[in-house]
Amino acid sequence: MLQSSLRICGTSSLRTAVVLQSGISGLGSDSRRSFSRIDGYNHYYGKLKNQEGMLRDAARNEAYRAAFEAARPRLQGATVMDIGTGSGILAFLAAQYGAKKVYAIEGSPEIARVASRLARANNLHHIVEIVPKHLEKVTFDDIPAGSVDIIVSELFSHFLVGEIGLQVVTLAKQRFLRPGGLVLPEIAWLKLSPFEDPALGAELRARHSFWEQTDFMGLDLTAALPLAAEQQLKEIVLDIVQPEELLIPPEQSPGECLDLVGPDDPEVWRKISFELQFPDRTRDATIDGLCGWWDAVFSGDCMGDKPPVLSTAPGAPPTVWAQCRFLLDRPLVASATARLTVKCELRAHVQRESYSIQMEVRNHESGKVAYVGPVELSNCYARHFAKPNAFPVVDKNGLAPAADGGTGGHRAPLAL
Ligand SMILES: C[S@@+](CC[C@H](N)C(=O)[O-])C[C@H]1O[C@@H](n2cnc3c(N)ncnc32)[C@H](O)[C@@H]1O
Q1: Model's pTM, two decimal places?
Q2: Which residues line ligand 1 (CB under 6 A)?
Q3: Which domains does the chain have, with CATH numbers?
């Protein structure tokens, strides 16, 4: 999860790991989820700087705290399972809100050890039991079947699903949740809005212009150009998007609602496909791409009229996830009132580590169609972290200015 706080990536990504508003500058943590092997994934979450990035994400933490507050009556004396406990934060919160037993499941051995130490140091080890395993490997000897009252998790990534978290929650529900038990959060929205930004396409093309050189130390590099271009087209762009950059404001943008509680079979998450119709835009435009984000809603029956929401929308308090920008293969001209639809398909990778996304945007007035992808959600370009100069310009004293203006961070502060 982080400007002054977003979650992620270098040029690839797990989460953007810098948090905002709480005055926290970029931590320089690794991007969330760009690994092709589960070892790399464990290693990423085993690094404390990446856990720290999530803990610094005040908007994220506050949404979970509000959900626990609303569910306080249900938490009294309850048995809770926290899937992917990381540092243990949600497990410890559950204990503080009255749970009598918390199973804190963590697949990364390094961070599981840290969570154990924190449990003991905070005298919560009588309540919080760290289970240092992937959820998929947890047996009924570890946790009795159907014995859990509340499942909580934060396994979200880019465009929500990037880290194969929904499957894990469904599996846990199937095996360990008692009938009528609570799952936090209960639903999530995948949201899309078109944008016009001709400069973005030009900028992305310029990213591989390095390989256009015909005399780089006497070498012609252009043979690498097609691959450089292809690799960049396969990246999603993570960015901080302002609401006014969108052709449909976030609150009017259409979305697909995912029921995180309903399914009994994790396989249902193998393919997620939906079609949305966009309302009229603010103006005629040449659409360059779609901005994507998600909102998770703690909507259980105990949550009252205004359920807590963890929103990663443009304009919402910044989070480690920032927003995704999906570039169309070609710009699509559309009048403000043209009927515009998008078909979106997300497919889990065979190795079940991430998803690829494909979209078809259709202008029903002109009959023209443009496409996104397939792009891997685990393959990110964290544009908000990109700096114009990879190597700092030195001043007349031969000193490089601190990238964060002197606070000691590795990345330039994010302009929100
Ligand atoms: C995004 S972090 C969240 C950590 C913590 N819950 C928090 O809110 O700060 C997700 C954690 O889940 C762990 N994880 C991911 N998939 C898992 C699985 N299938 N079983 C157990 N742990 C998993 C990761 O190693 C990581 O520590």
Answers
A1: 0.84
A2: 45, 54, 83-87, 89-90, 105-108, 111, 134-136, 154-155, 168
A3: 37-154 (3.40.50.150), 187-389 (2.70.160.11)
